[in-house]
Write a structure and sequence with these properties.
This protein is of the alpha+beta class and 352 residues long. It is built from 8 helices and 14 strands. The strands form 3 sheets. The protein has a 7-stranded mixed sheet, sandwiched between helices. A 5-stranded mixed sheet has the order 10-11-12-14-13. The protein starts with 12 loop residues before the first strand and ends in a 5-residue tail after the last helix.
């Protein structure tokens, strides 16, 4: 989607905030890049876009092909920041689209830098993004902006999503994403409690992300009480995210029931979010991996008063390593760890 040269200003591109009255520009940009295959249906609805812009849960920057006789030229690129609440300390950088005819003009880095500058002035800690790993261009562009890999989510994007003028697979398998983290202000020092079997890798990933974290692997606690969770079913993606809000002694049984329910209604991939700020996460039973097949996915910094560890279980998502690209040596090592974990779960007959 983007060129491979370093980011630099473009004299023929005018960068500006998208206003609610101009919301129709985003659906037009989405359609120019993805046709009708984009996996967020609301992005095709100008009214839905306008509502998010008005509420501040979407912050958009667009690039216009400006000229002397038309300073308000057509929108040829877009980058947005999504938040659940306008008080969130971090947001998701997404909706990155560039008109196929403008892919050699460094639009993506220019627009994402505008977003990062906005986050910096607002005091936000950073942005995370789920970048298609079907091709290396997006990953390379994020690396050049100073973002770093935080994980890979396999089978996250429906197979029928297509990219205009880009070879991104044969359309028979679901696509994967690389998770990137771009800090925009200093983050607080925190204590993190990863599951014991992931602790060394989490420690290494924190070092790569330059996050000030003290990793505790054995808090010496016993799980008690009843597990509580909430599930978000992503209809556009045909997958689901289970969030554990309390980890109790019955966590394996409770997660298994929810996993089976979601698989039975056709969710192709299921993700499990754990709060690394919760000491109970370090005591998570290994059966979550060994029996239920959840394996390492990514860390999302500064979510839920700390960081989120997202694990993943693939029930009906056929993902092959050849479908997933990387753009750095660390990214390649991180992806290999993810697939090692997947193979380990598959060895026990849990995932395809």
């Amino acid at each position: 989607m983007m060129g491979d040269e370093p980011a630099q200003p473009e004299s023929d591109i005018a960068v500006e905030r998208l206003t609610p009255t101009e919301a129709a520009a985003l659906p037009e940009a989405i359609r120019a890049t993805y046709g009708d295959s984009y996996d967020h249906a609301w992005a095709y609805d100008a009214d839905a876009v306008a509502e998010r812009l008005e509420a501040g849960t979407l912050v958009s920057f667009v690039g216009r092909a400006a000229s002397a006789d038309r300073p308000d030229g057509p929108v040829v690129g877009h980058a947005g920041l999504l938040r659940d609440d306008i008080l969130d300390a971090v947001g998701e950088s997404g909706l990155a689209v560039v008109d196929p005819e403008w892919r050699s003009h460094h639009l993506f880095p220019t627009l994402k830098l505008a977003l990062a500058d906005w986050c910096r002035t607002q005091g936000m800690l950073g942005m995370y993004s789920e970048v298609t790993a079907a091709h290396p261009y997006s990953e390379k562009a994020n690396l050049r902006l100073g973002a770093r890999e935080a994980g890979f989510l396999l089978g996250y994007i429906p197979a029928d999503v297509t990219y205009e003028a880009i070879d991104a697979g044969d359309g028979t398998r679901r696509l994967s994403v690389a998770v990137f983290w771009l800090p925009t202000n200093p983050v607080p020092t925190r204590t993190a409690y990863p599951p014991s079997w992931h602790a060394p890798h989490v420690q290494r990933l924190y070092k790569h992300l330059e996050l000030p974290r003290h990793v505790v692997t054995a808090p010496g606690m016993e799980l008690s009480g009843t597990t509580a969770l909430a599930s978000e079913e992503l209809d556009d993606h045909d997958d689901a995210i289970i969030t554990l809000t309390h980890i109790g002694a019955d966590v394996v049984e409770v997660v298994e029931r929810e996993q089976q329910r979601l698989a039975a209604i056709g969710r192709k991939a299921i993700y499990l979010d754990l709060a690394l700020s919760d000491p109970a996460t370090a005591a998570l039973p290994p059966e979550i991996h060994d029996d239920l097949g959840f394996f390492f996915g990514a860390i999302v910094p500064e979510r839920r008063d700390g960081d989120i560890l997202r694990m993943q279980s693939l029930h009906a998502a056929d993902v092959d390593p050849s479908d997933v690209t990387t753009a750095s040596d660390f990214g390649a090592e991180l992806l290999e760890y993810v697939f090692e974990q997947k193979r380990s779960a598959a060895h026990r007959g849990v995932v395809p």
